[in-house]
Design a protein that fits this description.
Its main location: cytoplasm. This protein is α/β, with parallel strands linked by helices. The chain has 9 helices and 6 strands, in the order ααβαβαβααβααβαβ. A 6-stranded parallel sheet has the order 3-2-4-5-1-6, with helices on both faces.
Length: 212
Amino acid sequence: MAEKSEKLKNLSEEELNARHAEKMKKKKAARDKIIATKTIEKGLTIVHTGKGKGKSTAAFGMIFRAIGNDMKVGVVQFVKGKWGTGERKVLEAFPDQVTLATMGEGFTWETQDRQRDIEAARQAWEKAREMILDDVHDMVLCDELNIVLRYDYLPVDEIIETLKQKPEMKHVIITGRNAKDELIDFADLVTEMEMVKHPFRSGVKAQVGIEF
């Protein structure tokens, strides 16, 4: 390794550039070969979970990307219903492409009413289910659905059964920590956000433009 490093030091800038170009050429050829084997096109079930920040943020990034590609999207917020968010303002600017349903009544520890939470979860899910099964929306985001499932306000089997019935090319994104194992097993794409450091632990409150 040390010998290789020494050799690189002795190369001219032109030689380094040529070496890099050859290396990238081989990498591209290998990459193209792998991509050529990927021929399946389908709508994905996507799960963002974990204790780290960014689950909903990443999901909204996909929603905004879909809007940019002239797709029709649906967004159902299962928990953060009472929060005014920056995402909401952006989504409302595209009424022809976006169906926005803010159904949740806040975090469960704020309502402190289990039956009320279950009813709100059911109403939100019926709206989400309608969009998941229709022929109108190309992508549906069920934001914080995992929290609802964690408290068993809805049966996970019912959610998975609906996902099995969705149109072939429809994408569905589900966010929230503590995703159920059954949902993780069923999903096509699962990302777990890992928290390394968070300002909240240092006494910093939620910031406009960062958390909402």
